[in-house]
Amino acid sequence: MVYAVVRAGGRQEKVEVGTIVTMDRVKAAKGGSIELAAVLLVDGDKITSDAPSLAKVTVTAEVLENLRGPKIVIQKFKNKTGYKKRQGHRQDLTRVKVTGIK
């Protein structure tokens, strides 16, 4: 069983070939290919975590779609002062499918 832990948009994700990952927006068109930086590689019983060896590892992924996350509502309120503030946010996301670990 081969899997890798990759750095994907400020977080780390455990991926195998065929895994679909939703991460922060990446500048790539739909159907394009990107490379993800490996942090750890497990190839059967062999575990690779040192930087020189991981520099040779390539994890490729295909961009499935660019989307936006759910809306979150930020509300601030201070009692007895008349202060109320309401703000919303939707994160830009990219969904990718891992196509190869070499």
Verbal overview:
This protein has one helix at 51-54; strands spanning 2-8, 11-15, 20-24, 33-43, 46-48, 59-68, 72-78, 83-89, 92-101. The protein contains one helix and nine strands; from the N terminus they run βββββαββββ. It has 102 residues and is mainly β. The strands form two sheets. Strands 1, 2, 3, 4, 5, 6 and 9 form a seven-stranded antiparallel β-sheet that branches. A two-stranded antiparallel ribbon has the order 7-8. Helices cover 4% and strands 64% of the residues. The mean pLDDT is 96. It has one domain (2-101). The two termini are 13 Å apart. Strand 1 and strand 2 (11-15) form a beta hairpin. The chain is elongated and about 60 Å long.
Q: How many H/I helical runs?
A: 1
Q: What is the residue-mean pLDDT, rounded to a whole number?
A: 96
Query: Mind describing the biggest β-sheet?
Result: 7 strands, antiparallel
Principal-axes shape call? elongated
How widely separated are the two ends?
Answer: 13 Å
List low-confidence stretches. none
Number of domains: 1
User: Which range best describes the helical content: under 10%, 10-25%, 25-40%, 40-55%, 55-70% or over 70%?
Assistant: under 10%
SS strand fraction: over 45%
